[in-house]
Specification:
69% of the residues lie in helices and 0% in strands. The protein is globular.
């Protein structure tokens, strides 16, 4: 990964169940965003996240799952990270504190941290 000049892309390994979880988080978060007033920022965010979610869902559909690869622009990656952060905050706000809620928040936060750490290492 040291060879950025040749166009290396950071690889962020997730197992299949984690990718399915991320896809479901995006799906649920998109439903939340659709309820917000339509501002230019919200419309752009919905489009970006919907595209990521649909690409991931297509690759995870039965008969297509092999080596899932999701190539994201820097902007898409920032939208994904923001969606993960906001989803965890929404879960914390709307659901009573219990073990299941805390496990969801911890899982989503772990995904967000892994992505952030790997991208930061690649850019260093």
């Amino acid at each position: 990964m040291n060879n950025k000049a040749q166009g290396q892309i950071p690889c962020i390994p997730f197992d299949l169940s984690e990718l399915q979880g991320i896809e479901r988080v995006l799906w649920a978060y998109l439903h939340y965003l659709r309820r917000l007033p339509a501002s230019p920022k919200n419309v752009k965010r919905r489009r970006s996240l919907q595209q990521i979610q649909q690409q991931l869902a297509a690759q995870l559909s039965p008969g297509h799952v092999q080596d899932v690869q999701l190539f994201l622009t820097r902007e898409d990656l920032e939208e994904l990270l923001e969606a993960l952060r906001e989803f965890a905050t929404l879960i914390q706000h709307f659901f009573p504190k219990n073990e299941e809620r805390e496990a969801v928040i911890q899982t989503v936060t772990t995904w967000q941290r892994r992505i952030t750490r790997i991208v930061a290492e690649f850019e260093a």
